[in-house]
Every structure is written in structure tokens, then in C-alpha cells.
Amino acid sequence: MHWAIRLRNTMVQIEQFVCAVSMFALVCTVSWSVVERYILKMGSGWPDELARYLCIWTMMIAAGLCVARGAHIGVEAFVNMLPERLQRPLEFIGYILCCVFTICLSYVGFQYFGRLLRTMQLTPTIEFPIAYAYLAIPIGGVLMTVHYLIKVAAFREERQEKREAKAGA
């Protein structure tokens, strides 16, 4: 299980760095857009488009961080009303269902990316292949999937340790 913890910690560090850099780029881009529009009295449009795509990428990378930290929206009020013996199995089922969803999201996202890549469609002002903007969806899905799989592995490891402790006692 130590490999999963090391993988999670490494992924979290990389995702935090990427999010910090992209947020910095986003702030700089939006600031330039404001200067360009209100001080220089010109509006080229490219900062708005770049900010949009930076925001999408940042959000999808940060979604993986949210899974790692348990920060996604959940129905904890409902789960907490259940008896304790049902709470953990329900949490495990939730991880499995979320994992299935993120796998489907990634699969469909990669398919859509491939179709867009073949069209060679460009963004309106930057004239960058739009497929790379949409690539954020499957990449975010893969990151979330890996984090959910690590949670599932940790859950199973914890359960195994409890069984072994009971058997030894």
C-alpha cells in the first residue's frame, strides 16, 4: 500500500504545482485583459479566450486534487444518519461508482478529443487547435480515476488490516 500513498503524494504535489502555475497565468492574463480594455482602450480578445481555456484546465486538474482531499460534494448528511456499520460500505460503493463515472468521462473525452483533432478546428482568436482545450476533460477524468482507485485500495487495505487484527486477537 505504500506505493499507493507515494503515488498519491507525488500526484498531489504535481497537481498543486500545475494549478498554481495555471492560476498565476490566469491572473496575469485577466489582468492584461483589463489593462488592454480599460487603460489602452483596445481589445484584441485573445486574453479572454486564453483565460477561458486556462480556467478549464485549472478546474479539471484541481478536480483530481479535490478527490485526493475528499473535497467533492457528497451526501454526508444522509450517510451520517445511517448506522455506523453501513456508513463505510456505502462510502466504498460511492468510490466505486465515482470511479466508473470518471472512467466513462475519460473514455468519452478521449474519443471526442480524437474527433476534434481530426477536424483541425482552431480557436477563434488564438488560432490554436481547439482539441487541446477539450483534452482537459479526459485528463481530469484520468486524474480523478487514479485518485479514486487509490482510495479504493486504501479502503480495502484498511479492511484487511482490521480482519487480521480480529483474527490475531
In summary, what is this structure?
By secondary structure, the chain is mainly α. The protein has helices at 2-39, 46-69, 76-81, 84-119, 131-134, 136-168.
Mean pLDDT over the residues: 89
- Decide which structural class fits the backbone: mainly alpha
Write the element-wise H/E pattern from the N-terminal end onward. HHHHHH
Query: Oligomeric status of the shown chains?
Result: single chain
Strand content: under 5%
Query: What is Rg?
Result: 21 Å
**Count of folded domains:** 1
Q: Report the uncertain regions.
A: none
How many beta strands in the DSSP annotation?
0
Number of helical segments with 4 or more residues: 6
| Termini separation | 23 Å
The main pleated sheet reads as: none
- 3D shape: elongated
Q: Specify the helix fraction band.
A: over 70%
What are the salient characteristics of this protein?
169 residues; mainly alpha
Structure in words:
- The chain is mainly α.
- Helix content is 83%, strand content 0%.
- The radius of gyration is 21 Å and the shape is elongated.
- The mean pLDDT is 89.
List the helices and strands and how they pair.
Blueprint: H1 2-39, H2 46-69, H3 76-81, H4 84-119, H5 131-134, H6 136-168
Helix pairs in contact: 1-2, 1-6, 2-6, 4-6
